[in-house]
Amino acid sequence: MSFLSFRVRLTLRWTLAFGLLLALANTAIYAGARAYLTRDLDAQLRTLAATELASAVDEYQGVHLHPFQVDVFGGGEYADKFVQLYDAGGRLLKQSPSLGAAGPLLTRARVRDAVAGRAPIVAVEAAGHPARMIALSAAKDGQTYVMAVGLYSDKLALGLRRLAVLLTAVWALGLLLTAGLGFVLSSRALIPIDRITSRAALIARGEFAARLDPPAVNDEIGRMTQLLNEMLDRLNAALDAHRRFAADASHELRSPLTAIQGEIDVTLKRPRTAEEYRATLALVRERLGELTALTENLMLLVRAQERRAAVDLHEVPLQPLLQEAAARLAGPAGARGVTIAFDRFPALVAYADPRLLGRAFDNLLRNAVQYNRDAGRVTIAGIDEPACDRCPTGAVVVRIRDTGMGIPDGERERVFERFYRLDRSRSRRTGGSGLGLAICREVLSLFQGTVRVAASSPEGTTMEVRLPGRRVGDQVVTGPVEGVAAPSA
Fold first, then answer.
1. Where would you tag: which of 339, 364, 439, 474 has the fewest CB atoms within 10 A of its CB?
2. Under 8 Å between Cβ of 136 and 50
3. What pLDDT, on the 0 to 100 scale, is given for residue 55?
4. CA nearest to 449, candidates 322, 321, 304, 319
5. Dihedrals φ, ψ of 468, to 5°?
6. Distance (Å, rounded) from C-alpha 255 to C-alpha 220?
7. Hey, which bits of 127-178 come out as E strands?
8. Euclidean distance between the first and the last CA atom of the chain, given in angstroms as a whole number
């Protein structure tokens, strides 16, 4: 059946289900009609048998039968009866002339049931016709007799056969009408699906900006269409982002490679002294260092996305992690006279991976140093927040503030995009690749954390990191970070 279309399979299933239901209903009707008609025939038979028995044992003559000629009474339709008279031992004494030479129609067991007063009703074959008989007992002159009265059931059987034919015809006609109606209804119901399929085929051929027709009714298909459009919007946005990422990545990788090739070409144009070759190699090594750092950042972004569903969380003390990250920036900070200090930082722990979280703090502090003023200051503050619906385990907040030039209001979200820089020429001088904050956001999202620009002005910028965590002690750290030399006066 897999080669059939969904419309045909749906119609066949609907027709099969309706046909089974209609067959059960027709069977119930037939069984009910048969039971009702049989019960009605049995009631007539009891009445007729009681009348026959009363007249057969009247007091003026012995036990006798009352045959009658139908044609004597004129036209009309009469039920054709027959009678047999038995003694208590089951011996046939008399019977209606219509039975001819037929033998006993009741077994001795049925005769005994009648003598016992149980009045059995049995189905018999009389004179080649189906019939039903009832046996009643009566006493006359000290002897017990059994009067068996029967009615032919040919008309009952004929009526039931006609009813069966009628119900079968109704069942067959119902199946045909149901199949036709089901096909029409399924075809109309699948029209929106056909439209969605056609539009999806268009999108599959590369027209990613195409969308499904907006739903006219907010039913199941309408909600599905709306959700598919939302999914297509997100996929299109992700595709555009990946395209920009690929273009920016190729551009960023091309720049140091082009610079390396240029330096080598210039050096090879004429013979050089050993010192000139050494200087060229040093410059090439510096370019390779930039290329290596950029490649590592790209790999970190990919690994952060791949580990989104399988990250191992630990309780990570934040003050030592920030201390180590600041110590690694001692050289760049000292060269520009930038001070890195804690501002009332309590004993906080976050639920995170220490290596990835350390990398995120490295990038945040590096940005705070690189984009600061000379002889500026970087302060690190922290607080804890109680549990809430958004963070049932509680949260810790780390704020890193610099004294740089600030970020314009319209750029505060764009700085988290990959390869985005506020000042590209300045970023080239400071060695930034535009990936630091993008890495921070990806990494922190692994731990259900966030990073945002909390405040920014010409006097400086505050970056805020929020993570699930808690406070573990009363100790508060204030003052310059150990291992980072303060600027000279």
1. 474
2. yes
3. 77
4. 304
5. -60, 130
6. 52
7. 129-140, 143-152
8. 88
What sign does the CA torsion over 472, 475, 479, 480 have?
A: negative
* pLDDT mean for each 10 residues of the chain (489 residues): 74 90 94 93 89 72 62 60 89 86 88 90 89 89 86 90 94 91 82 77 73 71 78 75 66 71 84 85 80 70 57 86 90 90 93 87 90 93 84 88 89 78 51 69 86 92 94 89 56
Please list, residue by residue across 308-339, b when 16 or more beta carbons sit within 10 angstroms of its beta carbon and e when fewer do. Answer: eeeeeeeebbbbebbbebbebbeeebbeebbb
Query: Which ranges in the chain are annotated with CATH 1.10.287.130?
Result: 220-301
* Domain boundaries 220-301, CATH class: mainly alpha
Return the pLDDT at 426.
45
H helices of 269-373, where? 274-306, 318-327, 330-336, 354-370
Q: Which residues pair with residue 343 across a beta bridge?
A: none
Report the alpha-carbon distance of residue 198 to residue 214 in Å, rounded.
14
CA–CA dist 380, 395 (Å, integer): 17
Residue carrying structure tokens 């011996």? 91
Looking at this protein, which amino acid is placed at residue 256? P
Distance (Å, rounded) from C-alpha 118 to C-alpha 185?
59
Q: Which residue has the tokens 């036209």?
A: 75
Please report which helix (H) or strand (E) contains residue 446, including its range: helix 436-446
Torsion of CA 114, 118, 124, 129, to 10 degrees: 90
pLDDT tens profile 148-191? 999 998 889 999 999 999 999 999 999 999 888 888 888 887 77
Burial of 209 (0-12, 13-18, 19+ CB in 10 A): exposed
- CATH topology assigned to domain 312-480: Heat Shock Protein 90 (3.30.565)
Retrieve residue 21's tokens.
């239901």
**CA-to-CA distance for 43 and 35, rounded, in angstroms?**
12
pLDDT at 482: 66
**pLDDT for 309:** 47
Q: Would you state the pLDDT for residue 1?
A: 54
* Location of each CATH 3.30.565.10 domain in the chain: 312-480
